[in-house]
Amino acid sequence: MTDEAKYKDLTTMVEDLWSSDDNNEVLETNVDEMEVDLSSLLDSPPKVDVFSSLKTSNDGDVSKHEYASTSCTLTDEPIHLSEELLNKFYKDVSVSFFEQYGLINHQIESYNQFVKHGIQKLFDSIPVIEVEPNYDPSKKGQGEWKHANVTFGKVMLDKPMFWTGEKFTKDDNKEQYLKLLPKHARLQNMTYSARMRVCVKLEVYTQTSMKTDKFKSGEEQVVQKQVISEEERDVVIGRIPVMVKSNICWLNGLEKNDCEFDQGGYFVVKGAEKAFIAQEQICLNRLWVESVELQNPKKKKRLGVYGNLTRQVQYRSGIELNKRRRVFIEIVNAPTGNDHYLHGGKVLTMYFMGCMIPLWIVFFALGMSSDKEIVDTIEVDISDSRTVNILLATISDAENACQAFSKKGKALKYMAELVKSSKFPPAEKSIEEVINRFLFSHLNGPKQKAVFLGYMVKYLFLSYTGRRKCENRDDFRNKRLQLAGELLEREMRAHINHAKNNMVKHMQKDLNGERPMKPIDYYLDASIITNGLSRAFSTGLWTHPYKYKEKISGVVANLRRLNPLQMTSDLRETRPQVDYAGKGGDARFPNPSHWGKLCFLSTPDGEKCRLPLKDKLFNCGMKKLVDEAYSASWKGKDKVFVNGDWVGVCDDSFSFVTNLKHSRRSKGIPPQVEIKWDRNHGEVRIFYDAGRILRPLLIVENIRKIKLLKGGYTFQSLLDEGIVELIGVEEEEDCQTAWDIKYLFLGEKKQPPIKYTHCELDLSFLLGLSCGIIPFANHDHSKRVLYQSEKHSQQALGFSTTNPNIRVDTLSQQLYYPQRPLFRTMISDCLGIPAFPQDQNGALAKPEYFNGQNAIVAVNVHHGYNQEDSLVMNRASLERGMFRTEHIRSYTAVVDNKELFETKRLKAKDRVDFGKTQSKIGRVDSLDDDGFPNIGANLTNGDIIIGMQAESGKDNSIKLKHTEKGSVRKVVLTANDEGENCAVVSLCQIRSPALGDKFSSMHGQKGVVGLLESHENFPFTHQGIVPDIVINPHAFPTRQTPGQLLEAALGKGIALGGSVRYATPFSTPSIDEITDQLHRDGFSRWGGERVYNGQSGEMMRSMIFMGPTFYQRLNHMAEDKVKFRNTGPVHPLTRQPVADRKRFGGVRFGEMERDCLLAHGASANLHERLFTLSDFSQMHVCNKCENFANVIQRSVHGARSKIRGPYCRFCDSAENIVRVNVPYGVKLLYQELFSIGICLKFGTEQC
Question: Would you say the C-alpha torsion 1013, 1019, 1024, 1027 has a positive or negative sign?
């Protein structure tokens, strides 16, 4: 049964459930009785649950409900659940959850929904485009003019194809298109996109305007319309980038011939991989109460005499996103007046259409008949003098603003005058049209708007009196995530409007005179949408959600592929809409609503829900809102909101909510619906909108069904049976959630276990992917966990892809012998693949998320070479291949195609082509005649890697820089979609760890290699084990990482015992378990071992802690940071060395380096660094006037020609001038000061 059918029958099902006599007993109990005591469930026979099963008719409608037995039917036999059984079940549930949803599914599903429904809705929202002729306005209304109507119809998307540029002899008129794969787009610098075709109908007709007697007054005009031509055809309106692994991608469902690590969810634009960053946006369709700052001059100017603000409530919907169209109510200081209610009091005023209007006038303009009716609508607490005084002052303020405002006509007239005189008056003629369109446009009729306005006032009063808190912008209940579908829809809408305006502009020219109309595809420029989307992906600038012609950044980012964990983290990143340069306020601090949804150390996101649910709740025991006056029967009843819209009221909210939750747990409504009952404020809020974050929790009430499950099951089947459910942010506030299974069985001293409603699947799921795989993460300092999750894990070298032969990345690095760690974690198991039988640890963890090797690490000092964060490494281990990597860098060159260049030859452009030429900028010994090196050729700095020469003879070859070298791995010659020839040459360099290279454990214990010690000089155990790495003992207390010690001890026990054990955060084995394992295997309980000096052979006095630890080699290598120069490029203004190593710039020498040389007394070195090798220059100084002397060319009496030399313009003499050596910065400073009238004097002495 489809989701739509489920929602259609929600009303019928709830009515049947409500009318059942058996259900009334259950539904009328207290809500606390829903919290089940687990001990009673485990030890006592369970009762039959009438909501355990629902049978449906053959057509899929929930028309008849029978409580029949299924695989989960409960029996009368007692059921005993052990902690071991629950642990196994929780693991199976977690594995099935990731199998169903994956890690990147939220982005892929959002894109699929956009392709399937969003694009069509986008074109359906465009009304019929009426194109008027571009005639002379003075002749309007006279004569016969051609008009046109354009209508967009069905949208069709092809799979990615590209044009080969060739034509076959069988059908010369048919262009040949071939399949475009992501690998082709990467190699050829193309965009992986699909053609978008739209059925467009063009109707051209003549419209004759005839004058009548009443035409001059504008009251009547007779128009005759005659259709000239009609045309309907499919038009290619543009190309849309295709997300890899989406439904329209060729790789969807492909298991072979692709990278095994690639999960999709990204785009290929001009050969570069781009990924969307989920945007956190403020939730729409809900009320916002906030405390506005009193010292805001702009708001003071807007309010005029009303003074400062205290509280504000506003309603934000799609149409009110523009600040000019927002609607909000404020409590402000009352203006001065004769009425005693206004003296020192506060009044209510409403901001609407750019002007402030007294609130009481708005109520009467909406059809309210009396003050009492308004007060009843607001539901004022008359016992609270604060609210009563504000209402009395508001009435007096309205009387002062408009006399007889209680009459609807007078109130509307007053509002119309204010709106017309505002800064941005609307285009609508009548105030009724303005109110209907811009004031709560989701409501029908003025009375419904008045009722909702009264609710806003009540909401504001509750906050003003301290009974309701102001809304927190950083709370995730007030946020929604915008994913690929929503972001693409926003950007495409802007480009479609651009293409539409361009079409109208070109059609108007052909509607004039006798010009024939061309086909519709002539006017629709497909390059507008194609180039617009490509430009947005390339620059990362996206259309602003509501600001006209403004762009925002941070929506699209380049996908990094150093290792699979880094790529997955980039695809799961979220970004709040805050200014990173500013303070940010509370946005930089973790919020309790992030619990279980966003990692507090990184930012992945959970499951995204998008459902086309319709409002079918009006008959579920609530009264529908109609366009009538406030009903007294509504008083005291709970309000029902669906996606923020007030749709009705409810008598018995407990029964209503209970029915809906049971329906959700029994497939009556989809599991993504979120149901929140706010008892304190009398509201029932139901959400099914897109962008919410949900997470799975086990329902303790139905925990007894676990033992009745037979055979295999999926996560969806567990949702259908009501064993697990998806909980949103707001609904979770009412849940009593156990952190782990053990908390279900444990209670306080001499107290029974706590009654929980839900239970976490595993506490490690509170962390992100990069945090959840850290062993013993809960034992380390949070700063170190942050370093590992956000920096070291994404800088670790691993095996980034399984198809490197068909990729030409600009820079990639591969670890030769990656290993998986000895330990396991819950998340790594859930993301794993079946590899072992169940009695051998179940599944094999995915190795690509661990990028490193297992090294034997000893904690000891070694001749002073591992001080601070320095490491001593075993040279023999490195020579055997440990931490050996492959560094691949690709060089790309683009030249014009010869045939294409001849057809579009430009005089000012010099054509460049590949080829070998005698270059003056580098060596060409390794190049062939085509300008490319041979495969396997060894190139060093100064060699030409790609030879290119222009027709004019200019050498445009690409030369290797002073730090670049390697052997040629790959040469690729191809062409892009713009007709240009592209060449890519890849250089490979094998790198073994060297001094200065950076390493890190999985606990943030980073360090650089300080010494490569010989194997025979290392200490060794009586078993002959020699450590690979020696780390300083002081690293652990200073960095507070005992987790690494526990990992080493556990790893030693795993290696000796032969079985893999878990080191999952928050569920790690105890220290006693680890020490007992070591003791049983004949080792010291605390991991220490007796070792012998490798140089003398003597046994060391102290025991050395030693064990296997998972270490990562980071991409920070000394070879990439080598920077040296004597002299080189300088800045043209200051003549000091330029920055940037790639430009052969200088080494930074700052104040601290200067102070160090001064402290050591190295004045000569200081002089060389800051003067000789920096901006050495010479200048001439006049000893007589002590001013700067210029070097000029002047005439000398008696000489035949002019001479060039120093000359003092102040003394008008060339005598007494000396040449001195000064930094060029001094000379530049003198010239700058001299330009503003400040002259410096230079005194010189003979040395």
Answer: negative
Instruction: Name the token pair of 705.
Output: 């069904």
Query: Are 227 and 326 members of one domain?
Result: no
Cα angle vertex 586, ends 580, 590, to 5°?
Answer: 100
- Alpha carbon 784 to its chain centroid, in Å, reads 24
Q: Kindly state the tokens that stand for 951.
A: 């027709």
From CA 287, how far away is CA 456, in angstroms rounded?
7
Answer yes or no: do 220 and 190 share one domain.
yes
How far apart (Å, rounded) are the C-alpha atoms in residues 314 and 327?
A: 6
Residue 593 in any domain: the answer is no
SS3 147: strand
Query: Distance between CA atoms of 345 and 663, rounded to whole angstroms?
Result: 50
Structure tokens at 994: 């060297």
Strands 272-276 and 638-642: unpaired
Domain span holding position 232: 107-282+480-565
Distance CA 510, CA 172 (A): 32
Euclidean distance between the first and the last CA atom of the chain, given in angstroms as a whole number: 100
Asked whether residue 378 falls in the same domain as residue 412, the answer is yes
Per the structure, how many domains does the chain have? 7
Count Cβ atoms below 10 Å from residue 475 Cβ, excluding itself. 16
Q: State the sign of the Cα–Cα–Cα–Cα dihedral 1130, 1136, 1140, 1141.
A: positive
- Domain CATH for 434: 3.90.1110.10
596 located within any domain: no
For 927, the 3-state DSSP assignment is strand
Whether 894 and 987 map to the same domain: the answer is yes
Mean pLDDT per 10-residue segment, the chain (1247 residues): 41 36 33 32 28 27 30 41 78 84 89 94 92 65 74 93 58 67 91 94 80 50 75 92 94 81 91 92 83 56 49 72 73 67 73 88 89 86 85 87 84 89 79 86 84 89 86 83 92 93 89 80 92 93 82 90 89 75 58 80 42 35 47 71 84 87 87 90 89 90 78 83 90 89 72 84 87 92 90 90 88 92 87 46 61 95 88 96 95 79 58 85 89 93 90 87 90 84 93 95 94 94 94 93 94 85 88 91 90 91 94 93 78 85 78 90 89 89 89 79 86 88 91 91 83
C-alpha to C-alpha distances, 471 to 856, 924, 1046, nearest whole angstrom: 53, 69, 44
Q: Is 380:387 a contact under the CB 8 Å cutoff? A: yes
Residue with tokens 């009501």: 722
Both 1042 and 920 in one domain: the answer is no
Query: Does residue 671 lie in a domain region?
Result: yes
